[in-house]
Amino acid sequence: MTRPLYARGVEKKTTFIAGAAVAGIFAVSLLSTVSFTKEQTARPDDGAPTASPPDHETNIVVPDLVTKETSVAKLSLEGLGFEVDVEETGEPTGLWGEVLEQDPAPGNSLLPGSRVTITSTAPDRQPLDLPGVTRDKKCPADQARHHRNLRVVLGDGRILLGSATESGVVELRGTRTSGATYRVSALWTNDGEYEGDVLVRGDRIDGPGGIEFEQDPEYTPHGPEVHGAPDELHFVRGGPPGRFAWTTVIKYLGGPGCYAFQIEGEDFVETLVVEAASRVAE
To answer: At 236, is the pLDDT very low, low, confident or very high (cuts 50, 70, 90)?
Structure first.
């Protein structure tokens, strides 16, 4: 027999009231538990600290960079996630400066984003001074010549740039990376006598663009170590022992055009001018 509608309404209302009562009992129990937990947390426990210990797994140990090149030390710290301040002091020494002190000291464990200050000597170098070229004049590029170690080289000073073509023009075809930027492998060699440090900087001299270096050719058992400042190339103490050439990567940021390098050693400064083209006729 079907129950009257009012009976079904009473049944639903009774069920609702019973459920609400159960929920109320559960809420009171939960509040009591929370209150008890708070009391236990606030109560001192034999002088034990109540703060959570730091999570050392997220910390990074500061490396020892004293005596390293200033630019290399800065890039190394930035690569680890630190903010870096560089303070120069004392008499200029070397072509790119040397780290004297660092704060915090090596071995400290810091969170990423922490600030590290390195104190270094200023680099002892000449200002960048490259020749200019007007748009209606031909690039005054160095002539290619044969070399005992490389097929052809550019330059007639202490440091020479290997060229892939007999004409001496740097080949850009097939090396374009993005926009007007070309990434080109390059070989460098010395005159066989100079054994000191070498600093190379450069720029485009006939229009917009520039030069960047992808690595310093510091050789390790695993090959050349990629580091250094993008706008500087460092050859340490004349080059890798037992090798006749340095292997580097040059980025020509303006595409085809006229580029100049200022090459500076401990007792000389020289300029090397090259013409870069996307298509080269032998």
So the answer is: confident
For the chain, the first-to-last Cα distance in angstroms comes to: 106
Does the pLDDT at position 41 exceed 70?
Answer: no
More confidently predicted of 101 and 177: 101
How many alpha carbons fall within 13 Å on the CB side of residue 249? 15
Mean pLDDT, residues 59-68 = 91
Spatial separation of the C-alpha atoms in residues 86 and 89, rounded to whole Å: 10
Which of 163-177, 180-194, 223-237 shows the lowest mean pLDDT across its residues? 223-237
- Kindly report whether the peptide bond that precedes residue 104 is cis, defined as omega within 30 degrees of 0: yes
Burial of 194-209, coded b for 16+ CB within 10 Å and e otherwise, reads beebbbbbbbbbbeeb
Q: Are residues 174 and 272 in the same domain?
A: yes
Domain that holds residue 98: 57-120
Q: Which of 205, 217, 208, 206 is nearest to 250 (CA)?
A: 217
CATH number of the domain at 106, please: 3.30.10.20
Q: Which of 104, 120, 136 is the C-terminal boundary of a domain?
A: 120
Answer yes or no: do 215 and 114 share one domain: no
Q: Are residues 224 and 155 in the same domain?
A: yes
| 108 and 150 together in one domain | no
CB 145 within 8 A of CB 152: yes
The domain total for the chain is 2
